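Obj.: predict assembly geometry.
Materials: sequence records (below).
Method: joint structure prediction, all chains together.
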Amino acid sequence: MLRLDSVSRHFGDQHVLDGISLTVPDGQLLSVVGPSGCGKSTLLRSVAGLLPGEEGTITLDGAPVTGVPEHLAVVFQEYGRSLLPWLTVRDNVALPLRRQGLGRAARRAEAEAILERVGLHGVARRRPRELSGGMQQRVAIARALVCRPSLMLMDEPFGSLDAGTREDLEDLLLEVHRADGTTIVFVTHDIDESVYVGDRVVVLSPGPGSRVVRDLRVDLPGERDQIGTRSLPDFVALRTEVGRAVRGGG
Amino acid sequence: MTRRQDFLLGVLGAAAAFGACEAVSRAGIVRRAYLPPASEVLARAARLAGDRAFLDGIGVTLRAWALGLGLACAIAVPLGLLLGAVPVVEAAVRALIEFLRPLPSVALIPLVSLLLGSGTRTEVTLIAYASLWPVLFNTVYGLAETDPLAKDTLRAFGFGRVAVLLRVELPATAPFIAAGVRISASVALILAVATEILSGFGQGLGIFIAEAQTEPDGTRDVLAGVVWAGVLGLVINGVLVGAERRLFAWAREPGPAQRKPARSRA
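Observations (raw structure tokens):
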């Protein structure tokens, strides 16, 4: 269980987060949505232990997060900067396994298996920059999954992809989440996307000093599909509500 | 401009320079003893390729060059990593470095000769000193240019400071280091030949040039030696550029697949 208790963050004299409190039960896929510049990424980096701060506490399974927690995985929007261009796709994916003391052959076998799982075939020996954006983000997702994380943090992971690729990856994420039951915090500025992938949507107010303005359960069927789910009345009602909250209508 | 045109223009430029030197000398505008015709210089340089003693000298010069450059890299890369990774150290030695860097290395030749004698040790020391700087500064600069997101990614996967340095920062900096080594390779060659000329002992390309100076009609030999120095520089640079292209193909600009405009449906 991930717990945030009155977490605030400042950069210099700029107030970014103002007393965020949240509890994320194990296995939940939480969407965090809010306008650009509202501190969503700051929130994510704080949870990842990359931005230490004094105000408020973050605990993971009861232990305070002071550094980077174990069994954590991240996926950033900028796959091109986050993947290492000098390593092959396979070695990028296998990289987190180095910390587990696995031999090279075992690491590569794991990496290849996970690449198949995210729908990438025959690209193990290519380099990330030879692939399309959507494929690169699949590589980044494979890298996040390879060490079977208990918590996965995703910072607008599909924000720079075209619409079709994005839908494919949203479905891949749902599939992975259903199969593994990983706790996922999914940051996005896309209202439809937040509802479509989330079990729950938290809306942050615009900065400076973002706070939680809305916390909604998404009661949609677990099996979702891009056309059917998006046309359900419940979906439309939720997206309207989230949209109003994002635009400050409360 | 196509590569072919580029190449042809290069050939044309070289031919024009050659023709000008040849003409100036043959027309008697400059005395032959001062500037022999370019064809004679080139012919002499070509004949030197069959001269055992001369080739041994080239070997001695190249050995000092390689030792000095290797020593410089062995010092500059770890030092650069230290300076780039630990700001406190960088702040502490910044003034010292800014004082040492602009000193012309050639001016240190007498001092170092006095301390270390006029053998290989002096030559290697001076080469190492002069070629330290480009590698050092490129290492520090490359480290500063490393993408913070790549570092954050590895940190988030639980890698510690040293692991991030070795797995992200060092490989990301490698193309910068290689460019520094290429610049240093030329500097090292200059220092190798200059040290030999000024200390004037033993064997080497610089010694050949220095000894030719003292002979009557030695200008041709001096110039032939200079041609060899130029060719060595050209070959070394070519080899290093080729190696960089092969090793760091990944560092070139990403393809069009990389950037797609962000689309928002919000």
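Conclusions so far: DSSP finds nine helices and ten strands in chain A.
To do: check interface contacts against the pulldown list.
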